[in-house]
Amino acid sequence: MTSSCLSSSYDRLSTEQYELSLDYPNTHENGSSVADISIRPPSKRRKRHHNIASKVRSVQPVSRDKDGNYEMPVQVGILTVLCLGSIVWDRDAYHNERYIWPAGYTVQREYYSMKDPDKSVIYTCWITDGGDAPLFHVEAEDMTGEPIVSPTATGAWTSVLRTVNQIRHREHSNSASGPDYFGFSHPTIAKMIQDLPGADRCRSYIMQRFVEMKERHVRGVIKKGRGGRPSMEMLSRGQRALMASSSLPASARDAVAVRSPDSSRSEAGKQMSVEALTNSDCTAVSSTV
C-alpha cells in the first residue's frame, strides 16, 4: 500500500473518530462508554437482601402458653413440629441470610419407605450441635437406629430420595430441597424460629416480615389437616417412631409424650413429661412477636 493510501485511510479514520466523539462525548477510544463503566446494576447479594427483607409472608396462627411460648407439638403443612430447639447465634455456620438452623430442632413427616416399596413411613428430622457446624439427621421409623447424618439438610434428604427411587426402580431425580423437607422454607416455621431468643444476634440472617393469614384461610388449612394440633393418628405413629429410636434427642420424645393419646400412662408419668418439656429447649421461645 502506498503512502498516499495510508494517509487517506488514516485521515478517514480520524474523521470518523472525531464525529463519534461529537455524538458520544463520553465515549473512550476503545468504544466503551463512561456511563457503562460508572453505572453498574446492583449486586445479586444486595438484590437478594432487599427481596428477603421486603417480602411479607403469610403464616398460620400458632397457640402459645401463658408465658408466650409456642405450644408443641404443632402441625404445619405436612410437618409435625416437635421441638424448635435453640439458636446457636455465635457460630456463623448455624445460619445464613435466609435460614436459621437451631440445635435440637425436630420435626416429623410421612414419606416413602427406603425398605418396603409398598409402604410410607414416618421420618424424623432433627439437628444436633456438631461444633463448628450443625449436623442434620433423618431417620425412618422402619430403620430405627440407622439415621442418615449430613452437614446439610439437602444432603440428608438426597440420600433418602436416592434409596427410595432405587428400590422402586424409578428414574426420577434424586435432588431434594433440604429447606423444604426439613420445613425451614415454610413461613410459619420460619417465623417460629425467628421468634426464638438469639435470632436478632445472627450476623448474616436477614429478619423477615410475617402476617397472620385471615380466619377463613386458617379454617381451610385446619380442615385439610395442615395446621393446628396434629391428629391422634399422627401423634401415635410419631411417638412409636420416637420411642423405638435410640438416636433421637430426649426433648423430641418429651414433646410427643405430653399429648400422647395413650390414656394408660400414669398421672405421675404425664407430669414428668410435662416438666421435661417445660425445661427443654422446645419451649425456649421469646414471648415477643
TrEMBL record:
Residue ranges of the region described as Disordered: 24-64, 244-275
Subcellular location(s) per record: Nucleus
Entry keyword set: Nucleus
InterPro entries per the UniProt record, alphabetical: FYrich_C, FYrich_N, TBRG1
Biased composition (Basic residues): 42-52
Protein's UniProt keywords contain Nucleus: yes
GO biological process, one term: regulation of cell cycle
Any single Pfam family the record assigns to this protein: FYRC
Keyword Disulfide bond: no
GO CC, alphabetical: nucleus
PANTHER family: TRANSFORMING GROWTH FACTOR BETA REGULATED GENE 1, TRANSFORMING GROWTH FACTOR BETA REGULATOR 1
Name listed for the protein in its UniProt record: FYR N-terminal domain-containing protein
